[in-house]
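step 3/5: co-fold with heme C
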Amino acid sequence: MIERTLADKGRASCLRDGCGLGASRTGPPRTALRRYLPAPAATCALLLAFSASCVSQVDDRMSGQIPRAEHGAAAMDYQIREFDRLVPESKVDEVPRGFDPVVWTAFIPEDNQMTAERVALGKKLFFDKRLSQDGTVSCATCHDVTRGFTDQRPTSEGIGNQLGRRNAPTTMNAVLLQTLFLDGRSPTLDHQARLPIINPIEMGFADGESAVKAIADDLEYQQMFKKAYGREVNYEDVGRAIGAFERTMIFLDSPFRRYLEGDEKAISADAKEGWRLFNEKARCVSCHHMSLSNPLGTDNRFHNVGVSARHWDFEALARKGIKAMEEDPSEAKLEQLALATDMSELGRFMASKNRSDIGAFRTSMLLNIGITPPYMHDGTLDTLWDVMDHYNKGGEANLFLDGGMEPLALTEKEIDQVVEFLFMLTDERFAGENRRQMEAQRAKAQKNRPFRDDEMANRKKLAFEDRISK
Ligand code: HEC
Ligand code: HEC
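step 4/5: write C-alpha cells
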C-alpha cells in the first residue's frame, strides 16, 4: 500500500519533500519518496484546482474587544466560537478542498482515520485547561485561534507563569509538515500532542496517567472516548484525538495562491516584484521552497541561519548538551532540555547529534506569516522588516552558519517589496488581522530597525571582522 508506507514513515507526499526544487546543504538525505508515489503525485501535481472562494472572513474587530483570560489568551469559549466561524463543521471524513485524495490519505495515520467523533473529542481536549496541572493552560493558550494559532509572544508562558525558550509556531497547516517541533524531534501530530501535557513548564503533568486522571471522571469524556476509539479515557487516544482535530486546521487560501492560479489582480505590482526577488536576488527560495503544489514555503530541512549566534558560544553548549543526553537519553529529558534550558539553542543537534546541525532549526513555514509575529525560534525579531535586515546582512556569523547565507545587498525598496509579498501569504479568512499586523509592523519598523546593517549587507565590512578584531 502506497499510503500505508508513507503514513507509517510519517513523511508523505512531495508537499513535504521540497518538490524537487534546489537541494539544501544540510539536513537528512532526501527520502526515496518518488519511488512510492504514483506519477502525478511525484511531479507534484498534488493540490488540485483550489477554489479561491472562502468561508467568512474574520472581521476587523479591534483586538481589545476580545475577552482575555489566563496568560493573556482569548477566553476558551470565545476561541471555540471563532474556530467554528473559521472552520465550519463539515464532513471531516472528506478530503479537504484542494487536495488530491490519494495524497490526503498519506497524511492520516492508519490507526487514526478521520471521524467526526474523533475530531469533536480532539477539539474539546485542545481547548481544555484541565489538561494542565494548575488548570490555567490549554493547547489554545499558546496556539490561540485569535492570534494565528500562536501566542504572539517572543517565547511561551506555561503553568506558574514559567517562560519557555522557544517561540510557539502556529498549528495551522502543521499536518503538512514532515517533522514537528522547531528541531524536528517529533514525527507526527498524534505523538507531538502528548508532549506539552507532560512538559514541566508547559502543562506540567508528571506523566500521561496523571493527565488522564484529571479528565477521566468527566462523564462526557468517558462517552466521547468510547464513541471515538471504543476505549476508556487514555493518554494515547488523547494524542490521537488532538491530532485528528489539528488535521482540520488547513489554511491555504491566500491572495498569493490566487495569483499563482492565474488571477493577476490578486496581489500588487510590488508584491509581484517581491516574489521575483524572493526567488532571485534575496535567495529565500533556496530554503523556503514555495509553489502552488508546495504551498507551505519550507524545505522541511534544518539550517543554521545564525539567529542565536548573537548570544551563544555553541561549542561550549554542545559539550554540555552531549553530556546531559548521555546521562538521561529519555524523551521527557529531551523535552525538558529543549524547552527549559540553554541547550534549546542547539536546535536540531539535540535530536540528531550531528555536528552540522548545531544551531540549526527547521525552515519555517511562510504561509500565514503576517499574523504570527514575533519571528524566529526565540522570537527575537519583531517585524518582517527585522527578518529582512537579518537576512540582508547574511545572518549572524558562526562556525555552523548554513552555506546558503550571504550578504544580499538589497535596497530599502527591495526590502519593502519582499515584505509586501510576505504579507500576501496569509489566508483570506485573516485578511483583517493581516492588515492590522502589517500596519503595526510598519509603524514599528519606521521607528526602529535594530538589526539593520548596511555595511554588512553591501560587503563594506566582512562577517568575521568584528569577531577577529575583538
Ligand atoms: C506553554 C505554551 C504551549 C502549550 C500549552 C502548547 N504548546 Fe504547542 N508549542 C509551543 C512551543 C513553544 C512550541 C515549539 C517548541 C519546540 O519547537 O521545541 C510548540 C510546538 C507545537 C507544535 C509543532 C509545530 C511545528 O511547527 O512543528 C504543535 C503541532 C503544537 N505545538 C501543538 C500543541 C498542542 C496540541 C498542545 C496541547 C496538547 C500544545 N501545543 C500546547 C507552545 C505551547
Ligand atoms: C539557508 C536557508 C534559509 C534561507 C536562505 C532563508 N531562510 Fe528564512 N528561515 C530559515 C530557517 C532555518 C528559519 C528558522 C530559523 C530560526 O528560527 O532560528 C527561517 C525563518 C524565517 C522566518 C521566520 C518564521 C517564523 O515563523 O518565525 C521568516 C519570516 C523567513 N525565514 C523569511 C525568509 C526570507 C524572506 C528569506 C529571504 C530573504 C529567507 N527566509 C531566507 C531558513 C532560511
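step 5/5: annotate
Residues 431-447 form the longest helix (17 residues).
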